[in-house]
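G., the chain you wanted modeled:
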Amino acid sequence: MTVLALSPHLDDAVFSAGARLADVQQKGGQSLVLTLFAGDPSRIPPLAGELHRQWRLDDDAVETRRREDRAACLELGARAEHWPLQDAIYRESLPDDPRIAQTWLFRMFADPRWVDDCTDRLRRVAERESWEQVLLPLGIGGHVDHRITRAAGERAFPPELLLYYEDYPYRRRHRKRWRALWPPGRLRSAHLTVTEPLLAAKCRAVRCYRSQLRSLAPADAIDAKLERDFDRFERFWRLRPGRRPPARAN
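Predicted structure as tokens:
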């Protein structure tokens, strides 16, 4: 099987669907983790500066994160591809006040120009290889980059190829909210039972994101955090035959 995993940022697909990617490798398939918003910043807004300090990264933070992502994908036997689009934390439209900006990321309007650009790029990716499955975020939590990724993926690929993953870490806090936005009967579950080897592979990959783990838990508590968060299922959803996604990504 040839699988394309769409990742808004440099960690999302692995944190949310790492066991699925490991399963593809173990069954002799091939996968590509394509990160849309992985470009170098033209400026470091206050919120981004705060995050860099939290991650203990300098102004070369994005290149460090790309290296982390390549290492994580290697653990899962996946290729990594990074687009030059800027993460929302670096964009000109983001407010300067970090407290407002942090909230704004989840309330920003998903500019149609961004969706159109990503759709055009993904259509070229669709023509490049014969993808048998496309993993994409549900957009749980509402982060603008996750919403853009989902909307572009839905436009660029046939619905029967789409397999939605529940966005980590938002999935636990926002599950009721996203389910309310999907009309009843639109989705069916396609959850993956995570075996010990798959869980071990996912955890090895996740530990490659050293900068991002600092946001999750203290170093001496990270193993317990991962064990608690990565349970025996990775939750995925498919569209039922003949159904379309809602007109607006959450």
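DSSP finds ten helices and nine strands in the chain.

Shout if anything looks off.
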